[in-house]
Please model this.
Amino acid sequence: MREFETVVPMIMDAGISVIGGMACALGCPFEGKVPIQQLEKIVDRYVSMGIRSTGLSDTVGVANPQLVYDVAAHMLDKYPGVHFHMHFHNNRGLALANILAAMQAGVTEFDTAIGGLGGCPYAPNASGNIATEDAVNMMTEMGIETGVDLDALLRVSEMVKKVIPHPLDSAVVKSGKPWVLQMAPDCQIKVG
Model:
């Protein structure tokens, strides 16, 4: 952080915006649960440097929707002048649910990767990021405008499939776009 405090003002003086980030903000493979006070300490340092945009990352995919909601809501409330975005890995299949929880807390920007590519070579068991196709598909199905053309995105994914030596970790790439079910207005579905 001391090095950042030296470099960040020079970068900002050059007219370049700076985004802060926190790997393992929602759980660490070495230290376990991350106290909210530790996140606050880092954001406070970023704010003191003039940084007004910060990413919170679930680098090893250990977060759950309740934790994501609680952390995101807390940070947005405590730091109204800071723009937060989130970064989720899909190790345990909860990344889409975590995005939804973050959205419910008020976060509107997320890092994703075509086909769920990525991972972290420094963090044990850090598999790929949440697939862009899956995030865009979920939001489209929910009526949330993303500005991303899902069909074009799927064409890019098909090109990536040809050069990556392993299957892509994307449900939409594997199964295709969903059928849209139109129900009659008087149709009722009862559960239980």
Notes: The first strand starts at residue 20 and ends at 22. Residues 36-49 form the longest helix (14 residues). The beta strands are 20-22, 53-58, 83-88, 110-111. Residues 120 and 128 are 8 Å apart (CA to CA).
